[in-house]
Design a protein that fits this description.
48% of the residues lie in helices and 5% in strands. By secondary structure, the protein is mainly alpha-helical. Helix 1 crosses helix 4 and helix 1 packs across helix 6.
Length: 150
């Protein structure tokens, strides 16, 4: 069946939302992010290496080190995050595996599936990390000390 995103993409979205909720001037230790997002620290370290290369975060080693966002979260679309970690998805591919599935040669559920795939694509392309952050802030009235994103 059709997979929307990987565990890596899920984790990176969660970590980026956590970072976007923080004070923008300071670095956040990976251990803290791991504890508050329930992302295993070794996996999180690997993810941060990847998104550091993408220049989405800045990392600093040593005392007072950690990571922080390098870009405005309103510029990070979910589609870009998922594409970076999972590769480009073919939203035109038939969900039943037909090689030829188009308006002129379609499977029984082409119209319904086509509409759904278009909605998914539009959602991912129009939703940003900032959008998720704003939703989280509205739904969760806690201080940063109590902040957990799970």
């Amino acid at each position: 069946m059709y997979m929307l995103y990987s565990k890596s993409s899920e984790y990176v979205v969660r970590a980026l939302v956590y970072l976007s909720l923080q004070d923008k001037s300071g670095f956040i230790m990976i251990r803290e992010i791991s504890e508050n997002t329930e992302i295993p620290q070794p996996f999180l370290s690997k993810i941060f290496q990847d998104i550091s290369r993408a220049k989405w975060i800045i990392s600093k080693k040593g005392k007072n080190g950690g990571v922080k966002l390098a870009v405005n979260p309103s510029k990070l679309k979910l589609l870009d995050v998922i594409t970076y970690f999972d590769g480009s998805q073919d939203y035109s591919r038939c969900m039943f595996g037909h090689k030829e599935c188009s308006v002129s040669s379609k499977c029984a559920l082409h119209n319904k599936c086509s509409d759904l795939k278009n909605e998914i694509y539009d959602f991912l392309n129009s939703t940003t990390i900032s959008d998720f952050t704003n939703i989280w802030r509205k739904e969760n009235k806690v201080s940063l000390k109590e902040l957990k994103i799970i």
